[in-house]
UniProtKB/TrEMBL annotation:
It comes from Clostridium paridis. InterPro entries: Cys/Met-Metab_PyrdxlP-dep_enz, Cys_met_metab_PP, PyrdxlP-dep_Trfase, PyrdxlP-dep_Trfase_major, PyrdxlP-dep_Trfase_small. Transmembrane segments: none annotated. This is PLP-dependent transferase. GO terms for biological process: cysteine biosynthetic process via cystathionine; methionine biosynthetic process; transsulfuration. Pfam families: Cys_Met_Meta_PP. It comes from the Bacteria. Gene3D superfamilies: Aspartate Aminotransferase, domain 1, Type I PLP-dependent aspartate aminotransferase-like (Major domain).
Length: 382
């Protein structure tokens, strides 16, 4: 099946018992065992619940893995996956990652002895220089919020030679546009709160692997740590995923137009969108993904006040998150990426004039007119 059929028919497409076309919300924390030593596939809902299983099987099919896991948030997915490492291990990470991912590595896992190195550019990085203690690579591509592109195949090939586990956060692309496992990654993680859920009504995380050995360890960690996705949220997530293809086509179409409009605008210093031909990652993106996604970041020129810009938005919601059907604008320096050290933020360009739009599926002209008005309103008087 092609991906636009798979989002609808992958996983478990109907309820085993009743034939209901939607797997019901099984609100049961435990399951009757008919006799000693026998169960019907489920024992206790932290370990497994049929509604959660439906989203786990679906994401596994979509990412081309052997097993999927659903968690209470993207951070719960990432944190559980990071537990594959042990004290004294070191991982390599992108220089711009979602702030919460950086925070959990820098401020939580470091307390348990996990070390990390920031790699400025994985596309040119010389892997022969890494130390013996490096055991894994954690990348986002495109990155949040600067939309830098990492060549997943290159990283995976270099990592394989050195026995490193490659983890890719595929939140921005979703399996509709990109399948990191087919490019050599070992594990994919998602903040399913974003495009997979798609309607800003559920917080969820997913992980998928194509290694049976890693799958066994993740199942153990998921059950041991217990940050699992509840049944109702699992149901909402399956419901969201079913329309992924139509939503993402529209998100990406609108985003391309917004990026081109901003690029040509005199008030804009820089636009970050991999769909622009002069984006440094454009060619790599074309080879490893089937689209450019729905997130566009941009910098206002001097003389335009970012607070006035934000305060004049009406149609576009000012708030954290991304990937919902409604357009959402955030100010990374004070919101999603506040957890990054100021020095790192400044160095990579997450400054006050940087804004990130998660372009929704509204009418493009309405969005463009709203941005145009916000730019006019943000112009400082001389
Ligand atoms: C790329 C990326 N990864 C992970 C996360 C964390 O996901 P959650 O908020 O669902 O915990 C986010 C959240 O913004 C994100 O943008």
């Amino acid at each position: 099946m092609k991906i636009d059929s798979l989002v609808i028919h992958g996983g478990i497409s109907s309820d085993k018992i009743t034939g209901a076309v939607n797997v019901p919300v099984y609100l049961s924390s435990t399951f009757k065992q008919p006799e000693f030593g026998v169960n019907l596939g489920y024992e206790y809902a932290r370990t497994g619940n049929p509604t959660r299983e439906s989203v786990e099987k679906l994401i596994s099919d979509l990412e081309g893995g052997v097993r999927g896991f659903a968690f209470a948030s993207g951070m719960a997915a990432t944190s559980t996956v990071l537990n594959l490492f042990k004290s004294g291990d070191r991982i390599l990470i992108n220089n711009n990652l979602y702030g919460g991912t950086f925070r959990v590595i820098d401020k939580v896992f470091s307390n348990f002895g996990l070390k990390y190195d920031i790699v400025e550019d994985f596309n040119t990085f010389d892997f022969s220089t890494i130390s013996e203690d490096v055991k894994g690579v954690f990348i986002e591509t495109p990155t949040n919020p600067l939309l830098s592109i990492t060549d997943i195949k290159r990283v995976a090939e270099e990592a394989k030679k050195r026995n490193l586990t490659v983890i890719v956060d595929n939140t921005f692309m979703t399996p509709y546009f990109q399948n990191p496992l087919s490019l050599g990654a070992d594990i994919v993680v998602h903040s399913a709160t974003k495009y997979l859920g798609g309607h800003s009504d559920v917080v969820a995380g997913l992980a998928v692997t194509n290694s049976t050995e890693i799958a066994e360890r993740l199942a153990f960690l998921q059950n041991s740590i217990g940050a699992v996705l509840p049944p109702f949220d699992s149901y909402l997530l399956v419901r969201g995923i079913k329309t992924l293809s139509v939503r993402l086509d529209k998100h990406a179409d609108n985003a391309q137009k917004i990026a081109e409009y901003l690029k040509a605008h005199e008030a804009i210093e820089e636009v970050f969108y991999p769909g622009l031909k002069d984006h440094p990652g454009h060619e790599i993106q074309k080879t490893q993904a089937r689209g450019f996604g729905g997130v566009v970041s941009f910098k206002l020129k001097e003389g335009y006040d970012f607070k006035k810009f934000i305060n004049s938005l009406e149609l576009i919601t000012f708030g954290e998150s991304l990937g919902g059907i409604e357009s959402l604008l955030c100010h990374p320096a004070s919101m999603t990426h506040a957890a990054l050290p100021v020095e790192l933020r400044e160095r990579i360009g997450i400054k006050d004039n940087l804004l990130r739009i998660s372009v929704g599926i509204e009418n493009f002209e309405d969005l463009r007119d709203e941005i145009e008005q916000a730019i006019i309103n943000s112009k400082e008087e001389k």
